[in-house]
Known about the structure:
With 367 residues, the protein is an alpha/beta fold. It has 2 domains: 13-46 and 274-363, Alpha-Beta Complex (Aspartate Aminotransferase, domain 1); 50-271, Aspartate Aminotransferase, domain 2 (3-Layer(aba) Sandwich). It is built from 13 helices and 13 strands. The chain has helices at 23-30, 49-58, 71-81, 94-105, 121-128, 145-150, 174-183, 197-200, 243-251, 260-271, 273-296, 317-326, 350-366; strands spanning 36-37, 88-91, 111-116, 132-137, 156-162, 189-193, 219-224, 237-241, 300-301, 308-312, 329-330, 332-333, 342-346. It has a 7-stranded mixed beta sheet, with helices on both faces. The chain has a 4-stranded antiparallel beta sheet with strand order 9-10-13-12. Strands 1-11 form a two-stranded parallel ribbon. A hairpin with an 8-residue loop joins β12 (332-333) and β13 (342-346). The longest helix has 24 residues, at 273-296. Pyridoxal-5'-phosphate (PLP) is lined by residues 41, 93-95, 119, 162, 166, 193, 195, 224, 226-227, 232, 237. Pyridoxal-5'-phosphate binds at residues 41, 93-95, 119, 162, 166, 193, 195, 224, 226-227, 232, 237.
Amino acid sequence: MEFFASAKKNLAKVKNYQPGKPIEEVEREYGLKNAIKMASNENALGPSPKALAAIRKNLPKIHRYPDGNCFYLRNKLSKVLGVSAESIVFGNGSDEILVFAVRTFVGPGDEVIIADPTFMIYEIATQVEDGSIVKIPMRNFHYDLDGMKGCINHKTKLIFLANPDNPVGTTISEKDLLKFLKEVPQNIVVVLDEAYYEFAKGTKGYPDSIRFLSDFKNIIIARTFSKAYGLSGLRIGFGIANPNIAYALNKVREPFNVNLLAQAAAIAALDDTAHLQKTLQMVLAGRRYLSGELKTMGLRVVDTATNFILVDMGTDANQVHEKLLQKGIIIRPMSVWGLKTFIRVTIGKPAENNKFLTALNKILKRS
Length: 367
Ligand SMILES: *Cc1c(COP(=O)(O)O)cnc(C)c1O
C-alpha cells in the first residue's frame, strides 16, 4: 500500500500491530474445524456467567448512549480497589489508557523509554504522536531498570513498565520498583502496565502498586478486564492515578469510549469471584504443567507470572507456528519482537494444553 501523501509524515513509520489470528480465519484458511486459540492471552474458560447475564439484561438498552462517566462501575471499582472514584479513568481496553498516557504527555521530539522486548502498543502510540522511543534491552528476560534510568534526559516524558511484561512474562519486584520510582524525577510519568495483575498477584515480591499512589504522584497503573476477567471482546480497562493525572487523561478521552454492555459486564465480573478463582486455578495449574512438560522436552522456558509462556523452540519459530496452524493450534511466533526461535503460548484448558504439547512434540521430532 502506498502512503497517502497528505497524511501526517510521522505516520509513515508507524508499525502496524499484528494481532494473533482469529479462530474463524484459521479454520477458513486451513479448512479446519475446532481450531484452538492460545495466541492472545485470553481466558480459555470464557466470560463469567454473571457477566453474560448482565449483558443479556442490558441488551434492550443499547439504543441509548452509555454512561460516559461509568458511574456504577466507578463506584464499585473504587470500593474494590480502595481508591477514590476520581483517581480512576476508564478505557476501551487498557490499550486505550496507554494511548491516553501518550496523547497526554508526549509531543513531537519527546522521548518515551520502554524495554525490549515489551508490549507493542507503547511504541505504536508514541510514533503516532511523533515522539521518539528509547528501547533498553532486557537482561536475561528481566527489566534493566538502571539502564532505563540512565537514559532519562530533559526530553523524557514517559516510561512504560509492563509488570509482568508481555511477551516475556517476568515481573519487577517491589523492592526494585520502589528504588526506581524514588530515582525517577517526579515530572516524568511512569506507567505500570498490570494487564496480568490477577495472575501475578501471588508471585513472591510482586508489588501491590496501588499502595505507591500516595507517595508517587507521577504513576499511572493500567489494568484490564480482558485477561483474567475474560472480557477481551467487549474492550474495557482502566487506569488508576493521582486525580490530577486522571483529570488530564480525561481530556483526551472520547466521551462515550466505554460501551454500555462492557460497563454492565465488568460490574458483574467483579462480583463473580468464584469465576475468577476458577480461572486462576486453571491458569496456575496449567502453567506449572505446561512449563514442566516443555522443559522435559528439552526446551528453554522463561519464568512467567502470567497466563502465557515464552518458550525457545531452538529452531525457526515461524515454521513451528505454521505447522501448528495446520493442526488447528494458534500460538504467537515471536519474530516481530526479534526473538526468531521463540513462541508465546497462552495457557489453555487442560485438553488444549495437551493437544498443543502432542502437536509440538510431533513437529519438533520431525524438524
Ligand atoms: C493484553 C495487554 C493489554 C491490554 O489489553 P486490553 O484488551 O486493551 O485491555 C495491555 N498491556 C499488556 C502488556 C497486555 O498484554
